Amino acid sequence: MSSKLRSILRKIDGRGYKAYKQIEGRYHFPDYQLIIDHAQADPFAPPSAVRVKVPQEKARFPSELSETKPKKTALEDYLTRRFYQTTRTFSKRCGTGNSGLVTILKPSQQVLERSSMEISGDGVEARFWIGLPARGRRILGREAMHIFDNVLPKIVENSLIYRNLEPEKVKTHVEVVEDTEYIRQHLRKSGLVAFVANGAVLPRRSGVDERPLQNAVRFQSPPSLEVCFECPNRAIKGMGIPEGVTLIVGGGYHGKTTLLNALALGVYNHIPGDGREFVVTVSDAVKIRAEDGRYVANVDISSFISNLPDGRDTAHFSTENASGSTSQAANIVEALEMGCRLLLIDEDTSATNLMIRDRRMQELVTKDKEPITPLIDLIPSLKRKGVSIVMVMGGLGEYFDVADTVIMMDAYRPQDVTDRAREIARKHGIRPKATPQEIKIRDRVPDLKSIDPEWRGKVRIKARGISGITFGKRTIDLGRVEQLVETAQLTAIGELIYLISKSRRSRCLREMLDEVEEKMEREGLTSLLPPRGCYAKPRKFEIAAAMNRLRGSLWR
Ligand code: ADP
Ligand code: MG
User: Fold this and answer.
1) Cβ pair 412, 364 in contact under 8 A
2) Which residue ranges form the domains of the chain, and what is each CATH number?
């Protein structure tokens, strides 16, 4: 170990915890550089921020493993996972609070760009945390030395040096992501919005366990919808979901929601072995649901809802407490405002009155007495805008009239029943065409002063798992925003909202977020964020979702 670090640790052994501040700095080890960026102030505080840089001469990653952006992200993802596992093997608690623990961001089943690992021509840099050891508030210098002398070198050796990894596994990881990304880039050119590979495993082990369900029925495309992608590393066959309106029908418990949820997360790449690694959805897909109780600020939902009995203006609709239908309408409009071109909707979590009014109800409650224009009547307008929909439908057969593709899930096996559904629609008489109405989408501009993360004079931004963000004195509820997968995404979202709030002038949210996204793509995720945080890349749709749900935020 570096003699400098050793002598400081000797000197401060047994002293008060604050003396750990003295080890902040840069140290040379045989295979790497260690940088202690920030020493925690006490054993119960968040652990100390540390980096390790392994130069390429030592790390020796073959350059073809990171020659494109998707491959680089995949390799970094692999190394984060490997580092995470080795910390669990080699680091042990050894005193008060977090003493002795070496930790790194915990990755989900998805492959994301994260702050935890960065590969470049110079080598690899890992960013992680160490709980500096103490008994009570006294420094345990010997234990600290053990971490730097034994534990950390083992972790680095086993996770950041290429020759100690399993080359086949690394290669598979990178190639799977490369192929998934290839499919995503080629979906639209093939007239598709999603793809589900034959052999995919869609169900999860449980609501709190994202690993694949064991002994699940593997996905098998119906012949009529089968397509094949010639990816860089393999050819993959599976079901292509065409642009337009697609219904997923079938009896209860036959796997409809499972398929839709897999499509919702198909905007992300998955790790090999997840079962969903070749379930791919276009990147501008947004899962839509009813979300009663949510905050809505100045959204034009008048295409769906107008003439409310209390005379409220729905072109500028705001509420602290949205109903099922108004929340779902706002969710659709806000997604389209951000450029969403695929809506994913599950009847289970939808407001029925927003989905449809059937003919009997139309006859009894005539249009002039009903403030809601159901989604089914806005489908022609959505199609004109190039927006596709994939919808799970258990009970609303009137959608047969507007569907381009109908997939029936039968004991987890999809069947193409488009022709039969058409025939049935014809037999019952096609739904009378609603008066052609364009769906209205307005660009909204946030009032930056109303976005304030301060609390008692300090900026306070903290992710609460994947279900919310503490933002100043408010909490942003994201519990029903379904396309978030990692806490680190929420941390990034909180910081990005803060960044936006500091812009010199406000522009419409779409422009501001396109700019943020472009910058993250060009300069890397961490370029926009404060150092030493734990970040994973969010999509602009979820950043917008968080801003839109910030209570008290004002928009014009
Ligand atoms: P639906 O929405 O049609 O009512 P779900 O998608 O909720 O059905 O699935 C019902 C149950 O079946 C869930 O517990 C799910 O985990 C399980 N399941 C879904 N797909 C499969 C599959 N391919 N193999 C085995 N079990 C599955
Ligand atoms: Mg369901």
Assistant:
1) no
2) 3-165 (no CATH), 177-442 (3.40.50), 446-555 (no CATH)
Q: How far apart, in Å, are the Cα atoms of 218 and each of 80, 194, 196, 235, 282?
A: 29, 17, 11, 18, 22
Q: How many whole angstroms separate alpha carbon 199 and alpha carbon 196?
A: 9
Give the number of other Cβ atoms within 10 Å of residue 400's Cβ: 23
Buried b (16+ CB within 10 A) or exposed e, 161-195: bbeebeeeebbbbbbbbbbbbbbbeebeeeebbbb
Q: What is the pLDDT of residue 442?
A: 96
Instruction: Report residues of the chain scoring pLDDT below 70.
Output: 1, 434-435
**What is the 348 CA–ligand 2 centroid distance (Å)?**
6
- Specify the pLDDT at position 371: 83
Cα 319 off chain centre by: 26
Atom of ligand 1 nearest to the CA of 255: 6
Residue 372 and residue 375: Cα distance in Å, rounded? 9
- Of 188, 196, 191, 186, residue with least CA distance to 218: 196
> Which residue among 248, 253, 393 is best mutated to probe the pocket of ligand 1, counting the most ligand atoms within 8 A of its Cβ?
253
What is the per-residue pLDDT for 369?
76
Query: 13-34 b/e with 16+ CB inside 10 Å = b?
Result: beeebebbeebeeebebebbbb
Output the pLDDT for position 394. 85
Q: Which residues pair with 474 in a beta bridge?
A: 471
pLDDT for res 435 = 67
What SS3 class is residue 305? strand
Q: Are strands 461-464 and 468-471 parallel, antiparallel or unpaired?
A: antiparallel
Q: What's the pLDDT score for residue 332?
A: 98
Number of Cβ atoms within 10 Å of the Cβ of 238: 23
Query: Which pLDDT value is given to residue 48?
Result: 97
> According to the model, what pLDDT value does residue 434 have?
64
User: What tokens does 465 get?
Assistant: 């798992």
CA distances from 67 to 62, 119, 158, 175, 422 (A): 9, 11, 23, 12, 48
Neighbours of ion ligand 2 (CB under 5 A): 256-257, 348
Residue 466's identity, in one-letter code, is I
